[in-house]
Amino acid sequence: MVDMKRDNTFGLLRLLFATLVIVSHASTIVDGNGLREPLAWILPARSLGDLAVDGFFLISGYLVTKSFFSSSPCGFLMKRLLRIYPGFCAAWLVCMLVVAPYSGAVVWHLSAGQYAWLLFSMLSLQAPFYPGAFHALHCPYLNVPMWTIGYEFRCYLLVALAGMSGILLRPRWFLVLVAALFLGWVLENNGFLHAGYSNPILKSVVSTVFIVPDPFCRLASVFTIGACFFLFREQIPFNYRLSAVCLAGAAAWLFIPGVAQAYAAEYGLVIFGSYLIFFFAFGVKAPWLRAINSGTDISYGVYLYGWPLSSLIVLHDPGISPWILALATLPLAGLAGYASWHLVENPALSLKRYFGGRLGLLTGPDDAVHP
Predict the structure, then answer these.
(1) Which residues of the chain have pLDDT under 50?
(2) What is the DSSP letter of 94?
(3) Cβ atoms of residues 228 and 175 within 8 Å
(4) DSSP class of 172
(5) Which DSSP state fits 99?
(6) Is 237 helix (H, G, I), strand (E, B) or coil?
(7) Which residue range forms the structural domain that includes residue 82?
(8) Is residue 122 part of a domain?
(9) pTM (predicted TM-score)
(10) Total structural domains in the chain?
């Protein structure tokens, strides 16, 4: 399998997923009715944003696992920090220092302890929050999509632990981890993991490690499935016949009575859809498609700035339609992503050269783009 930089459409896919998140959130921001978003007509329990986040985590699982094999454990962690923190912290500060006051929040009247808590929130990759921000809107939140970043970084740590323990070198053992996470996802969706949450000590431990078990199990499952596509890259064939089977399998899964109206819809879409995503990533040979969002990767910035930009637009035009809102947000988010890449992300990534320490387990360059 060819997976060198620009010999795939990962850049295009990431940009597409970031776009779908903006489209998905438009109706929620306008009037608080998420059921008006396109996918809700077919899958009431899921949204385009949910599937886009799954796509991000699938690709991330592949690329981050690849990165581990081309770095020392310390180098791997430093590279992941450089990739995720600078862009996140810049967007977090923009939301708190610029967007929050402009959206109606009264800032600067905080104690030293409250400022310390805000700093901790940023460093622990929590979404920014300030009381009073966007209080005139149906969804008074500064930046909802940023909630996923903390989970993504925990998945990075999961890869590091699996790698240092030797599990990544034994892919069949890694499949046991994937199965356990997937089982946890299913059990959490059915309420079986809530029994011990009343215990304050257990609740504290669970909250520290997983944040919230349901998203962690779900996103870690998807992430590790993406990792499997790298670990088993020599055994997985990509062809149109298997693509047709997976497409038919995903469609058939949704026709099972009750599945389309439940969280179970996502299980089949992840299992069958993951193959389709990687088939598209490696099977599309058009150079112009592979070049989109490849050298200059604006997808992280588009994802980070889409929600606050949409909210600001609605703040000044409450009667705007969701489709017009999405169309108005996308070019602005693209500009924000471009600025984020050139002013924050790429300069930070230039420091990666100081954290090489290759293990020699995998030849080829380390992928420098955010999954």
Answers:
(1) 1-4, 196, 202, 208, 210, 212-213, 357-371
(2) H
(3) yes
(4) H
(5) I
(6) coil
(7) 10-354
(8) yes
(9) 0.89
(10) 1
